[in-house]
Amino acid sequence: KVSGLPTPDLSWQLNGRPIRPDSAHKMLVRENGVHSLIIEPVTARDAGIYTCVASNRAGENTFSLELTVAAKEVHKAPVFIEKLQNTGVTEGFPVRLECRISGEPSPQIFWKKENESITHSTDRVSIHQDNYGYICLLIQGATKEDAGWYTVSAKNEAGIVSCTARLDVYTQWQQQPQTTKPKKVRPSTSRYAALCDQGLDIKAAFQPEANPVHLTMQSGLVESDDL
């Protein structure tokens, strides 16, 4: 609100340049003499130093302020790019339960075995997450007690998702002799870079002979002791 005799003219500047009225910038004067500059919608180009200039024949007066335009926060509910898969492993060998999740902001991850939460890593069971959305529960030296249903949940401000998979742990005598050369499965170095940075020897943990892929090829019905 400005006063003076004669009644001052009022103009607005952004970073020293005059602001012209357009579809996004409107200059209004209320009946009580209050002047307004309305910007709708505001964009990153509107950030800067605004100066209000009031002038008449007797002189000129100004004031300035800074407008900061923050980027709009994006919210995307978590989704599974790759879900957990049912897995079988021979007792004593390492196994990983893995999935891939996306979401904005980056979701919190929660693991559960049956109805018990897995809240922290131990020397034998560890939780890992990298910058590409890969989530991994690594069990080094699986035991019969590790068998069961595992659930991973991802939560952020936009929503929550979960998926569940079964881990079966077979005893050594359930493993039939190899008749064909086992298929070699090598983990991607980029995917497990974050794990190696933490001092884990991933290649040693996942030797080809420790991979349970061949168990799916055996004939007959293999039943977990938990069923």
UniProtKB/TrEMBL annotation:
Domain of life: Eukaryota
A GO biological process held by the record: dendrite self-avoidance
Keywords: Immunoglobulin domain
One Pfam family of this chain: I-set
Residue ranges of every copy of the Ig-like domain listed in the record: 1-68, 78-168
Keyword Nucleotide-binding attached: no
Record GO terms (molecular function): cell-cell adhesion mediator activity
Keyword Oxidoreductase: no
One GO cellular component, as annotated: plasma membrane
InterPro entries named among the record's database cross-references: Ig-like_dom, Ig-like_dom_sf, Ig-like_fold, Ig_I-set, Ig_sub, Ig_sub2
Transmembrane segments: none
Gene3D superfamilies for the chain: Immunoglobulins
PROSITE patterns, per database record: IG_LIKE
Protein name (database record): PALLD protein
Gene source species: Alectura lathami (Australian brush turkey)
Organism placement in taxonomy: Eukaryota, Metazoa, Chordata, Craniata, Vertebrata
